[in-house]
Amino acid sequence: MATIKVHGSVFSSPAMRVFACLHEKDLEFEFIPVDMGTGQHKKEPFLSLNPFGQIPAFEDGDLKLFESRAITQYIAHSYAEKGNQLICHDPKKMAIMSVWMEVEAHQFDPVASKLTWELALKPVFGMVTDGAVVEENEAKLGKVLDVYEARLAQSKYLAGDCFTLADLHHLPNIQYLMGTQSKKLFDSRPHVSAWCADISARPAWLKVVAMRSNK
Which chain positions lie within coiled-coil regions (predicted)? Predict the structure, then answer.
């Protein structure tokens, strides 16, 4: 039986980050679905795993973690010898990787997540998309992606020549937005477009997409 357990949803962007990392490292894990529709994530026993009542929650033996980016860093460091390398060990390269991980968390994700909610998820729930919110956040995301375009003109991946967590963390929002009108923001920037196509075609990510398709 796998010692690693992930409690969450295959449609949750944070959970998808964790799934992608586990597949990149070729690690076996047990996926435990959490029924958010009934508020299972706001009740015990889930709250004992994540007191904030958000998915995912992660277990590796007696270790319990929450916050997806912390989980992926734990996996990448603890299972460094497994699967694909996802972190840089050289101090300078590690610093650059860390910069772009911060950029994803604080510049890309806040606006991309709002667009994902408005354009990809609201229609699924029968809710009306707010055009003003979309317009505002597409403008913001465009400015963020201009910075990415300049960076990716200099290197294949955000941290350099190798795929790392800095790239991986973007995948869930990219997956959602490439199926919406916001796709144009990525396609209109050639280096960003090539980067998106590259990382979205990774075998580990295709396994995450397959997990969603099977539900």
Answer: none
> Distance between alpha carbon 159 and the CA centroid of its chain, in Å?
16
Q: Are strands 57-60 and 63-66 parallel, antiparallel or unpaired?
A: antiparallel
CATH of the domain at 67: 3.40.30.10
- CATH no. for residue 151? 1.20.1050.10
What span, in angstroms and rounded, lies between the C-alpha atoms of 20 and 84?
11
Residue-wise pLDDT tens for the chain (215 aa)? 569 999 999 999 999 999 999 999 999 999 999 988 898 999 899 999 999 999 999 999 999 999 999 999 999 999 999 999 999 989 999 999 999 999 999 999 999 999 999 999 999 989 999 999 999 999 999 999 999 999 999 999 999 999 999 999 999 999 999 999 999 999 999 999 999 999 999 999 999 999 987 76
Are residues 55 and 15 in contact, defined by beta-carbon separation less than 8 angstroms? yes
Number of domains, the chain: 2
Query: CA torsion sign, 150 to 156 to 210 to 13?
Result: negative
Half-sphere exposure of 49 (CA within 13 A, CB side): 28
Q: State phi, psi for 131 to the nearest 5 degrees.
A: -60, -35
Q: Angle CA(38)–CA(123)–CA(206) in degrees, nearest 5?
A: 80
Residues 127 and 159 in one domain: yes
Task: Establish if 212 belongs to a structural domain.
Answer: no
